[in-house]
Amino acid sequence: MERCQLSEIKNQGGVMSAAESIIVPELLRSETDTGFAGVAALDDRRARLPTGTSVVIRDVISLIRQVAGHDSTVLVLGESGTGKEVCARAVHDLSPRRNRPFVAVNCGAIPADLLESELFGHERGAFTGAVSARKGRFEIAEGGTLFLDEIGDMSPTMQVKLLRVLQERVFERVGNQVPMRCNVRIIAATHRNLEESIQRGTFREDLFHRLNVFPIEMPALRSRIEDLPLLVRDCIATNLSEGRGRVQLSPRALGALALCQWTGNVRELANFIERLSIVCAGRVVEVRDLPPKYRPPLDWTLEIKALEDTSQVIPEEEHLTEETALSVLEEVELEREERKEASNKNATSDSLVILPEDGLDLRAHLLTIERQLIEQALQRSRGTVAQAARLLNLRRTTLVEKMRKLGMAQSGEFPPED
Ligand SMILES: Nc1ncnc2c1ncn2[C@@H]1O[C@H](COP(=O)(O)OP(=O)(O)OP(=O)(O)O)[C@@H](O)[C@H]1O
Ligand SMILES: [Mg+2]
After folding, report:
1. Is pLDDT of 92 > 80?
2. Across the strands, what pairs with 74?
3. What interhelical angle do 112-120 and 156-168 show, nearest 10?
4. How far is the CA of 144 from the centre of ligand 1 (A)?
5. pTM score
């Protein structure tokens, strides 16, 4: 797991007091602006930069600032929901084109045969249903930025046509032979690994090199989990501005959320906070209010509760300050590290199994070990067989079969989950 260590962050100056963490984005601005003549003059206040103060997100912000003032093509990469569009808009908003259109096209959502007219426009009668002439996105974006989202899903035919526009900066409307010159900055994005797509023959290598002039990789949320409190605060503010209720998270609940994997990244987090601001409007969300998926495994819940019972008596007015949240996250992280060390140690000492003087029944002994490990995995995953199977690096069906053999479950007790 690529989770960031809070202790490391602290050493790098990443853990700050609440006041410090609030002013950091401003500090970042003045520091980086002075480094890039031309960009410095651009109006920062209009740009919505990705939220966060982690080292990885600071690097992203720095790249956005560096490239914004140039017309270079940008390729934004990253898992789904990491903020690729947020990044693209920030590049546009910080660029000299910011008063011209930012036009986004989801290349994966438009059927291949319609994408050409969507991008380049068409003349009246160019195809059945073309009752009038229509501008394409390239024309609409003239002078501004065209954001080609999910570029990895573009058909091979369209890839050739796009390559030509990138090379020659001219295109033709469907049904017209007259070349039209365009002045558009291209930002493309994809959640796919384009190098793998090239290997598989589904993406053109020459187009990749045209797009990959200035790559920016949006980091997964789990690799910058220390940004969670700020992101939660942003999401709460967005919900408030959209008329939903005010919700607060206790530092313990925030600590629990920091243990989640967030495979859907910031989008998943934003959706989750929106749901909370409907069902928990006007109150403080505790760990027990979280849906099971977002609750830590049983042993972690106990640890988080232990924090609640001992040193961490946090007055309500301090809920969701970065300082209190980070101190809880830090304790949870320390516990996590200690737990990992202890379990590594156990694994090592358990591997030094000594054969008793008068031997043992190897088969029975191995079955006991197997049963104990399966029980622990099931306990840790709160009875979710698929999750327990992952902990044991087994297929779910293999685990179910083993459990049946060991008499740990009745046939049919575990319905298919994956
Ligand atoms: N750093 C961030 N700060 C604040 N909000 C963010 C950030 N990153 C993403 N979001 C929010 O998360 C959601 C997803 O962002 P965005 O659409 O940019 O992601 P994406 O990578 O393009 O996702 P997809 O791959 O699903 O298209 C949006 O609601 C966006 O406002
Ligand atoms: Mg997107």
Report:
1. yes
2. 187, 214
3. 20
4. 21
5. 0.68
Contact between 245 and 278 (Cβ < 8 Å): yes
Asked which of 53-57, 262-266, 281-285 is least confident by mean pLDDT, the reply is 281-285
Nearest one of 101, 100, 103, 96 to 43, comparing CA atoms:
96
Amino acid sitting at position 410 = Q
The average pLDDT across 67-76 equals 95
**With the CA atoms of 199, 203, 204 and 207 taken in that order, what torsion angle do they form, in degrees rounded to the nearest 10?**
-130
69 pocket-lining for ligand 1 (C-beta < 6 Å): no
Does residue 410 surpass a pLDDT of 80? no
**Mutational pocket test of ligand 1: of 86, 221, 242, the residue with most ligand atoms within 8 Å of the beta carbon:** 86
Statement: residue 175 has pLDDT above 50: yes
DSSP designation for 394: -
Between CA 369 and CA 376, with CA 373 as vertex, the angle to 5 degrees is: 140
Residue 284, beta-bridge partner list: 248
Q: Does 308 sit in the ligand 1 pocket, CB within 6 Å?
A: no
- Residue 137: closest CA among 107, 164, 96: 107
